[in-house]
Please model this.
Amino acid sequence: MRKILIFTFLLTLPFMAWAKPEVLITVDAKQKVVVKENGKEIVKLMEAKDVTPGGILIYQLHYTNKGDAVAVGAALVNPIPDNTLYIDGSAFGPGATIDFSIDGGKHYKKASLLTYQVDIGKGKTEKRVASPEQYTHIRWTVQEIPAGKSGEASFQVRVQ
Model:
């Protein structure tokens, strides 16, 4: 009996090596629109069309692990779209660590730790905390996405 168990285990090893995660991401852009229904003003999310300056867009990232193994530490990255400004505190992603970049996605840190150097003259520099208007990218690191499972992350921007 012992030989059978070992043999069965050895046969499954190659199949286990083939198991891998496959995370697919889709992104939707919606806009907040105020409509009147039954005499009341209601805010709805609609497909983003004809967005004017000052308008708010909501980007939703939908992710699914289509693979047959758990995805560990999956990074979902989205640039802040051109001609928009990130709305502070709007990034959302259950079970994810959210970091930001101000250098085109080369480096990421938590918002409170995201700093840059400014030349203040006479060979001196000053370290400053980046403001949300300076963010270029957002990264959500999801701890685990089990095989076949899905999730969502989002953020909001204001159109310039």
Q: What stands out?
A: The beta strands are 23-37, 40-47, 56-65, 71-79, 84-86, 96-101, 115-121, 124-129, 137-145, 150-159. Helices lie at 2-18. The chain has one helix and ten strands.
